[in-house]
Amino acid sequence: MLRVGTPGLCYTVIMLSLDFIRQNPQVVREGLSRRRDPQSIDELLRLAELKRGLVTRCDGLYTALKPLKETVRVAPVERRAELSKQVKAITQDIRQLELQIIDIDTRLQPLLLSLPNIPHPSVKEGDGESMSGDYEVRRWGGPVSLEFEAKPHWELGERLGMIDFEAGTKISGSRFISLKGAGARLERALISFMLDMHTREHGYIEILPPFLVKRSAMIGAGQLPKFEDQAYACTEDELYLNPTAEVPLVEVHSDSILPMGALPIRYVAWTTAFRREAGSASRQTRGLLRLHQFNKV
Known about the structure:
It contains nine helices and eleven strands. It has 297 residues and is an alpha+beta fold. The chain has two domains: 2-113, Orthogonal Bundle (Helix Hairpins), CATH 1.10.287; 180-296, Bira Bifunctional Protein, Domain 2 (BirA Bifunctional Protein, domain 2, 2-Layer Sandwich), CATH 3.30.930. It has a three-stranded antiparallel β-sheet. A two-stranded antiparallel ribbon has the order 1-2. It has a two-stranded antiparallel sheet with strand order 3-4. A hairpin with a 4-residue loop joins strand 7 (233-234) and strand 8 (239-241).
């Protein structure tokens, strides 16, 4: 989604426009079904039709108001009072309709923001519960054959003194870790390696953005409202900890029109990502998986 407007006043342009949804409701319903998304668009369509009716009435009153004002301007003095009352009444009706339209827009916005994109026809359907519907697109290389039983990374990390799970929990609670010694150096080296490769070999521009972003940035990058319960929020300042570097990178060019000659723009960024991971499955929480804080390029 994009955010457009003037500095200090902006609004969100939804990927699925209201007109598209209203004109192609079955396409949207089928897309939601393919994504195993249970939400309904019935209320959205009802509000859209209600808004369209109000807008039509409002446009009709504006059309009637313009010549009436012109009539008042040239009317005899004795008729101006009566005509002015008509102008005032129509103006009040228009104001009431506009307030109703604003109210409907306020109710439509979260419904539109919650709608995902429609899957491409080439995307195959899974069963939504297991990996039985998954298929292999391509393969590079092959599995490494070991002559011994492979150990999980959390066992190796502790044995080699690279990961300290106890310290992470002691400092911050569950799903936090502390890297130490070779583990900390390895993490730092991998970050530098990825940044250097993209900037030196592929022409990317390195960005080191703020780790806290505004709510509008989270909405613009598609994180809210869907992942509201997964975000760490600083409510007093109305800021959010970055869940991924894409959020501030998208915000760099919000409210901007980019000329064709400036494209493509290639950015690479390292940030620490913060995610609550509320409700994630217990089988996916061992070791470095499903952490609340991790580094990401």
